[in-house]
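Write out this protein's structure.
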Amino acid sequence: MVRSNEEVAMGRRLLVVVFACVAFAAGAAAGLGIHGCRTPPAPLPATTPLDGGRQEPAGEAATVSRPVLVVSAKPSSVPQGGLLSVIVEGAPEGAPVTVELFGRAVAAFSSGETARVFVPVAVTQAPGVFEVDAHCGECVVVPAFVEVTRREFPSSHIAVTQETAELTRNQARIAADQAKVRSARATTSPRPYGEGSFSLPLEAEVTTPFGHTRYVNGVESGRHWGIDFGAAAGRPVKAANAGKVVLAETLLLSGNTVIVDHGLNVFTTYMHLADISVKPGDVIEKGTTVGHVGSTGFSTGPHLHWSATCGGESFDPSALLELDW
């Protein structure tokens, strides 16, 4: 049978369609696109999650092994005026580690793959839950979280003689004394001087707790940055833990004063002593007598004023009693 030209053309078009369908089906089975290229896999997510931590960019960068820093903080719930102990595990040995909390960065003290730092919580720090972050080059970080709880700070009132009140007017001497204290606390041991918990320097009644708003002769004079223990004159005052004496002299307002560096930027101070039993440079054990209860300087009677600082900031020294040192 003779076909017309139109019938031949139509037959050819039908064969092209059949061959195209067969080729497409074969390519799909082989994982090929219609142009013969392998069909790309489903796109990866923008980030690849790491177990329990932050997310690292996917792709080529994700294949590079990066150290993982694991941050822990104790206690997990701390009141205003308290102290946090932060430990960072996993940093490359010798690499500097920085801890970030409350919007500021603090250099940690490294030993091997572990870094430690203590962070005071200001009495004015807003309550809430905060992330404890860490930085060390290109390390990946698993942060910790801490809760800051509200604490009430009542007021306390004392009355002093006119002679004692006059001490506060010697601003030149006060400034010089403050410079001595800052200098004594300017450097610290990168290792603790001792192990184990801190203890009270004196077993006695607390007459003024930490953080109270202090009024002197009816006039507000600021916060009380320590704990006052009322006790009979002459009772021994003990170092709360092992450390190095960095200041031991008579200051105008705090009287006979001893400051001890316990390492890791933690210092304790003992004020208004009747005498001083140690000297700068002495490395002392926990329980060493640093002096005796007195009433020197700006004082209304025999007592010990015990205070603590970290990084130049005051915190409640009673927090040291619960510290994981």
